[in-house]
Sequence to fold (505 residues):
Amino acid sequence: MDHFNYVIVGGGIAGVTAAETIRQNDPNGTIAIISDEPYFLYSRVMLSKPNFFLGKIPFDQVWLKTEQWYKDNKINYLGGKTAIRFDSASKKINLSDNTSIGYDKLLLAVGVNVRTLHIPGSDKKGIHYLRTLDDGKAIMEHIKTAKKAVVIGGGFIGFEMADLLKLAGMDTTMLLREHHFWDPTLDEGSAGMIERAMTDGGIKILKNAEIAEILGAENIQEIKLKDGTTIECDMLMCGIGVVNNIEWISKSGVTTGKGILANEYLETNIPDVYTAGDIAEYKDLLLEENTQMGNWVNGREQGRIAGLNMTGKHEAFRFVSFYTTQGFGVTIAFVGDVAPGADRTIIARGSPELKSYMRILVAHNEIEGATMINRTGEMSTIAKLIEKNINVSDKLKELADPNFSLKSLL
Amino acid sequence: MQSTPTTTNMANQKEYTRKREGSSIAKIVVDRDLCIGAASCIAVSGETYELDNENKAVVTGSDAVDDATLIMSAESCPTKAILLFDKEGKQVFPK
Fold:
């Protein structure tokens, strides 16, 4: 049985950043990364960007680490292998190819999986999800021939894919199960700005619309909604959320909630077992609650902290997360915790009419998060205000004034 | 902090001069066609970068951090949109 001082399950940005950090702090420890994908680290966030799909960004730009980098850093990359079980008493991981690997320290950075459709016809060809590079390649290939596309899901992926499909020249319809875009994270005003931009960009949006059946022979030809409406299409793109596949992890004794539970040091309840990235449901010191954040910067920062702590440091993860996107001439950014809650006061800064609109979520006299449409210029400042726990209780009026400089509060 | 004077070249790249004492990096370039606003550079060095309203990274503090942090910020970019050059004009990142 092979044995490594550090074993990392997951070859994405969290896992690879952890390996890099471990190597910087422990020149001699042995490191292995187990990944169910065959590829060296690539840019998962690039996969949904129109410029990448349409060739404006060269394909090879997707690669972030070369084979040589793994060699130079003495990181054993075990690609195309799936971890299926681990035993914390004997410190052993079992892989799907019937081999086992021993570890001293283990990092679970397994990511999340896409939610898939389970309706009649959902096995037909021409239905896409986006998680891996292979998913991206399949979409790239299909857009060369497809004519009519339907996108399901009003979130980041749905938004970016609609932009891409339209730019690729396809007749594109978007289905929203909710009554506005990104409900309930965004309000109707913000959603309206995005919907108008998409409609102006040629996307047909159907709200309160839920798919019931996929029709066609081998390939998708048409979809049927719950209200009986049918839409002809030869490509279906789904961005309908994620699922946490953690059964094998919870069976091994690791405490799980929605994701893998961890404290602020990204330690699980089992000694020497850590977690990072999209799958980690960690204690967020700034928000003072358990949170799961699925985005690139969060995965990278958590990989770094987990890597440090695996080498014997004791550093807490303390970071304001953010995510941005753009398309159809609008920019969208989320900072901190943007989940709506009864205890949160929402301050509007700017307005949909001004085509520049931020919602600042305030609780316990501090800013918890913000959503911003066409105001990404203020993202860094908001992140710093959250990070520094600035008391804004006597500044609510100023926050609502789009001309007031937020930087002056720092 | 003062923004460094910038120029934009034909390739839609914004260039920022760096004059930090003891630094071997003399120029930071942001390729605005490559930048997707992932903001990982800001996560590494909020002293150096911000996003503008077009969701592109701009340098607001070209001298704010040491070379190691600056290189780390460029390495963190998921589209390799940040390029670093030494005093002789040789590209030091991406290699």
About this structure: The mean pLDDT of chain B is 91. The two ends of chain B are 30 Å apart (CA to CA). The domain at 6-87 of chain B is CATH 3.30.70.20 (Alpha-Beta Plaits).
